[in-house]
Structures are given as structure tokens and as C-alpha cells.
């Protein structure tokens, strides 16, 4: 809106008008030699009033336009471009592991401004309550799409209904949720965690023996997460099939290196013999290795404790190549481009697959190559 408190704007308006060579005909007329003297006095007065009114009206008109221009410029001048960005709210689990960092990075890269997106990431610090608050905040902000990497599987229906009622499409990534109504989310993309567990157990059966006694220490991830549930179920099924296998300890290390070290220190003090460490991610395995180093216990290909790990991040693969981890099952975190593709489909009015599993491999320390490590993106 035009305001009187902007003399600078009025000045700029006239400068702009002159620059644009706008037809200030009335002024030109007034300044022309003899312009006023050619008329009788009454007519001259009328002409002067007309000129003054024209000048004022023109100034008002240009100032209003100028005010609008000034306001847009103060918003960064790229207001139109920013408005064109697709706003995506991403509720991320946290930053508990190398896998998680790679996952966040993959999302940032795929949802860059250059690609036409504004990505708002909210870190839940491994707490579901924070994720619920984040989703509510995204709804209040009226983002275009919501993406959730759920910490745990249970108790999502309430907040998902809120997002659905607001008409915001919600995509689930990485871990899964349990819901009474599959219509509350558009689709899910992530890993088959049970298959990862089965792959690990299959290797254990073939390589460590299915008929002999195996004492297993089991380090679980964050309890109630799909990654923990699937990998744990795989091991439980293996223990059921192999009567010689005994889980001597089962404890959560919350997917972090610090907790992995802490719980392993305790386990080592209590158990003089451990044959296998079944560890539900690389970071906990690194923490456990620190504990084993400090306790003087050996591990890996040439050691007393065989290590099974999950994720196969770059650092995890390096440890596998060095023979410290015997078998590492991949969990692929590069979901950014996949989720971006889903959003492009939705924009085009297409229906994405409801559930999509990413394909994953596993690495045996005796077969992994330097090329496998060099090819690792995360
Ligand atoms: O949900 C994937 C799991 O979460 C990864 O295995 C783990 O490292 C991460 O924190």
C-alpha cells in the first residue's frame, strides 16, 4: 500500500519515470516557452489546476506501483522463485549412526533448492513424541508433503489422521509403522529388515556351524524400531532352528557407538566365553570393539569372538575388509532420490507403489575386495 512516510519512494518514482521516459506531457507543456502567456488569465488558471492534478495523480499511481516493487525486493527479490519451491517437511529419527547421517545427507541432496524444493528437517533425537510434534508443526506450516522416518512402529494413527485431514500427502521412509488404516500414508520405501536378519543367520549356519554350541551376545538396536524387530526376529528364528545356539545376553545399545561400548563392557565382564557378537548395526559394533580392545579380548576373522554386523557403511566395510567384522549385511540409506521420485509421481497425479523394498547385499570378510570399499558412497 502507498504510504506518505516514504519520500524516498516518491523521489525514486520520479527518477524511474524519467528513466523510463514516461510521457510527462503535462509538465513538458507547462515548461514550454510561452505556454502560460498564450492564454487569457481564467483559462490559464484552469490549465494550471489540470496540470497540478495530473502531476499529483501520476505521482500517486506510480508510488503505489513502486511500493509494491519495494516490498517484493525487501523479501529477497526472488519471492516468485521461492513461492515456486515445493515444501517438504522431513521428520528424521536423529543422528545416532553413520547410516542415519548418510540418510539425512541423501535427503538434503535430493531435496535441494536447485531441484525445486525447500526441505525442512526436524531431528527427533530418537523420540517419537518429538516426531509427533514435528508432524503437527508441518501441518500448521501447510507444507506440501510430509516425509517420516519413524523411530518406532507403534502409535502413529492419531497424528497421521491429522496430516490426512489437512490434505497433506505423507510418505514413510526407512522403518515401517503399524497402523489400523493403510490409507493414512501414501506409501513406504525402505529395507526388508527381517530379510537382513535371515541373511545374517544363514551365513552363521553355513560358516559357524549349525550343529555345534554357539554362545551368542546379542546387541539390539532401538527397541520397537523395524530395524531392531526384523534383525532380532531373524536371530530368534535361527536360535529356534539350531538347538546348540544360546543367546547369553540380549541388550539394547540403541544403535549408538557409546551405548554399544557401554553394554559390551558389562557383557565381557560377565562372560568369559562368547563365540558370536550379533550386533544390529555398525556403530554399536565399533563401540563393542573398543570395549573388547580394552578388555584384551580378540575378535573378527582371527579372533575368539566372531562379529556379525548390519549397515555396511563405508567405515563398516573398512572394518570388514580388515577382518574385524566377519559378516556385514547392507542396509541402504540412500533414500533421498527414491522419495523425490515418489513426490514427482504424485505431482503428476500418478500412484506410487504402496510398499517398495530396496535391494541390499552382504559382505563376507574373506571375500570383500578393496573395490567394494572404494565403490561405497556412504
Ligand atoms: O533404520 C535403519 C537403522 O537405523 C540402521 O541400521 C541404523 O544404523 C540406524 O540408526
Largest sheet: 6 strands, parallel
Q: What's the shape?
A: elongated
Question: What would you say the CATH architecture of the largest domain is?
Answer: 3-Layer(aba) Sandwich
Provide mean pLDDT, rounded. Answer: 85
Structural class: alpha/beta
Quickly count the domains: 3
- Record field, number of beta strands: 12
Low-confidence stretches: 1-40, 53-80
Q: Can you count the helices?
A: 14
Percentage of helical residues?
A: 40-55%
Radius of gyration: 33 Å
Amino- and carboxy-terminal Cα gap: 52 Å
How would you briefly describe this protein structure?
The protein has 378 residues and is an alpha/beta fold.
Note down, in words, how this protein is organized:
With 378 residues, this protein is of the alpha/beta class. Helix content is 48%, strand content 16%. The protein folds into 3 domains: 7-74; 82-190 and 334-347, Response regulator (Rossmann fold); 193-331 and 362-374, Rossmann fold, CATH 3.40.50.2300. The strands form 2 sheets. A 6-stranded parallel beta sheet has the order 2-1-3-4-5-11, with helices on both faces. A 6-stranded mixed beta sheet has the order 7-6-8-9-10-12, sandwiched between helices. β3 (145-148), α7 (157-165) and β4 form a beta-alpha-beta unit. Alpha-L-arabinofuranose is lined by residues 96-97, 99-100, 174-175, 227, 255, 281, 310-311, 331. Alpha-L-arabinofuranose binds at residues 96-97, 99-100, 174-175, 227, 255, 281, 310-311, 331.
